[in-house]
Amino acid sequence: MKGQNKLFIAIVIALILGVAIGGFVHLQYPESAEPFSKNIKLLGTVFIRLVQMIIAPLVFTTLVVGIAKMSDIKMIGRVGTKAMLWFISASLVSLFIGLVLVNWLEPGHVTTLPIQDAASAEELLKSSKGFSMEDFVKHIIPKSVFEAFATNEVLQIVVFSIMFGIALANLGDEYAQPVVKLFDIIAHGILKMVGYIMWFAPLGVLGAIAAVVATNGFEIFKVYAIYLRDFFFALGILWLVLLLVGYLIIGNRLFELLRRIKEPLLIAFSTTSSEAVFPKLVEELERFGCNNRVVSFILPLGYSFNLDGSMMYMTFASIFIAQIYGIEMTIGQQITMLLVLMLTSKGIAGVPRASLVIIVATCSMFGIPPEGIALILPIDHFCDMGRSMTNVLGNALATSAVSKWEGQLDNHGGDL
């Protein structure tokens, strides 16, 4: 754990340095803020790309090995059913909390935000217009597994890996064992790479934070203070609910789990990418005692279906935009919106700024001006920090809970 603590401290120092350097550039050299931001952001880009490089092979090998080792198709079905029940319940709770709190706090009624130029939202508006059931299906079922690997489409890789894993499980040990062993070695080799890549995390954090502060300064926090305050309060309530449920299931070991995932949480918060911590999260959950077969099966599914922070943000932001424009929505309309968001959000995991695309599509559906997305674009980065961290927590709890229900949560703590 000593190396982990060093990395955690390095990330915290990088976070503080990033804010300080960005603030200095913004205040002292405002004319250089744009080029500075563009250049220092490359540190974050290097880290994110290093992580993205190993996501597809890691998801594929761990998921195939996990399912093939289960060999019992009934067990695969049982674990999958428990996981989906958790995902659906958590998604509904997250959406509902967002809906209740945005109606209670009414951030759109108490703030007067400057109306942003809709041009900044033009790209999102375009990408949401093509949203349909056809796109939903295409996004889930891969046309080519190589294309899915090349574009890091996690959901498509998951679909292929599950089918391939089940096929291997039914081949019998004589045929399947050599392939499973090879993939197992590859998976552990990639997990070894995770350790090396994570030492780039402090540089990535420094670059990402410095770029945002240099461009936007500290003023952005003041302008949108109420919106951010209310959103993070709502996230805090969601965390309490998730942690309470986690405590009821895994007891005092919840605190050990939080200690183990503190780095992934901080990296997700700083880089606004829950994808960036996927490999590290796999490693830490196995060290925590979750069965590696359960981890390799549940976690990739969770990244596609269990984005609690993003779910809550969707209802919160959609109703906020309605409030800004003075559009009153009935309880019935809001419940309908919740159910629509529940369904539409499931097929778009992994798409850049997916939450915003879904919000635009939903606003159009309910007669809310979709251009209102331009109002929250300037602070979306800060909201994304909170929702990325919450997504990581939700998936860690889901994996631990299913492991516990399967009676496969060890107390060894520390060994892969």
Q: Could you report the average pLDDT, rounded to the nearest whole number? A: 80
Task: Decide which structural class fits the backbone.
Answer: mainly alpha
**Count of alpha and pi helical runs:** 20
CATH topology: Proton glutamate symport protein
Rg calc: 21 Å
CATH architecture: Orthogonal Bundle
Instruction: Identify low-pLDDT runs.
Output: 111-117, 347-352
| Count of distinct strands | 0
Please write the string of helix (H) and strand (E) elements.
Answer: HHHHHHHHHHHHHHHHHHHH
Sheet with the most strands, sense and barrel status: none
Please report the first level of CATH classification, the CATH class. Mainly Alpha
Shape: globular
Overall number of domains: 1
- What is the distance, rounded to the nearest whole angstrom, between the alpha carbons of the first and last residues? 14 Å
β-sheet strand percentage: under 5%
| Helical coverage, percent range | over 70%
InterPro entries: Na-dicarboxylate_symporter (IPR001991), Na:dicarbo_symporter_sf (IPR036458)
Transmembrane segments: 7-27, 47-71, 83-105, 154-172, 193-214, 226-250, 319-344, 356-379
Membrane topology: Multi-pass membrane protein
Keywords: Cell membrane, Membrane, Symport, Transmembrane, Transmembrane helix, Transport
Features:
416 residues; mainly alpha; Proton glutamate symport protein
Report on this model:
This is Cation:dicarboxylase symporter family transporter. InterPro entries: Na-dicarboxylate_symporter, Na:dicarbo_symporter_sf. Pfam families: SDF. By secondary structure, the protein is mainly alpha-helical. It has one domain: Proton glutamate symport protein (Orthogonal Bundle), CATH 1.10.3860. The protein is built from 20 helices and no strands. It has helices at residues 2-28, 33-70, 73-105, 107-110, 122-129, 133-140, 145-150, 154-169, 173-197, 201-216, 219-223, 225-250, 253-260, 262-271, 278-288, 292-305, 308-324, 331-344, 354-365, 373-405. The model is unreliable at 111-117 and 347-352 (pLDDT under 50).
